[in-house]
Amino acid sequence: LLDQKDSQVKIQRRLTLPAVIGAAAVDAINPCACAVLVLLLGTIILASRGKKRRILGAGLAFTIACYISYFLMGLGLFSALKISGIQRIIYKITACLAIIIGAWNIKDSIFPGNRFRIEVPPTWQPLLKRLTSGITSIPGAFFTGLLISLFLLPCTSGPYVVIIGMLSHTASRIQAVWLLLLYNLIFIIPFILISLEIGLGFTTTARVERWRQDKLPRFHLITGIFMIILGVILVIFLS
Predict the structure, then answer these.
(1) Alpha-carbon gap, residue 130 to 232, rounded angstroms
(2) Taking phi first (over 0 means left), then psi (-120 to 50 degrees means alpha), and beta for anything else, what does residue 49 get?
(3) What would you report as the CA-atom Rg of the chain, rounded to the nearest whole angstrom?
(4) Which of 104, 131, 98, 133 has the alpha carbon at shortest distance from 116?
(5) What's the CA gap between 236 and 239, in Å, rounded?
(6) What is the pTM of this model?
(7) pLDDT tens profile 184-209
């Protein structure tokens, strides 16, 4: 029985890195954070009269701020779960949560007009626009990124919370730090690409926003399928 349990733990640990990479990839295509970045860059473009250096700097500053805040929030949650001593219970909850999030994303893909969606609540959107509309500098973009990260949690935290719950059961603190750094590096890749493309003049904020809206159902579908598969795998190794 002990050998079987040890074998199970080893398999769980081998699945950790692929799970982290996969969850980060589907989280990276989450449209919420990219939508805020596009709003911010649109404001910077008007304020800077199209100066590429300021536009690019603002996008990268926002990106770095999101990276720092998400990493710190993830590390804090991981530490809290480790200290709690209920990692196996958390692991079970995580498995169920992954399936629920996956099903919800698939629902959003099939019924995109549904009121209850995994996105920033509509009541928050005017506030987000007000926060970004007054930003005209690179330091302002950085601090906006730190603040807005909190507003984005309802629609970006699903895969992240699942991974953190899994890490609390399968990884040491040192391993978790490196895996969370990797997760968030993958997560910000679209931010970097959008900042570069808009900042260097290869595209416009309007085009990026149209593309984002067109691909929204597909993004939800990809995320949903991955999260259900991940949840099922986690459930299998609970037995």
Answers:
(1) 41
(2) left
(3) 19
(4) 104
(5) 6
(6) 0.83
(7) 999 889 888 888 888 888 877 788 87
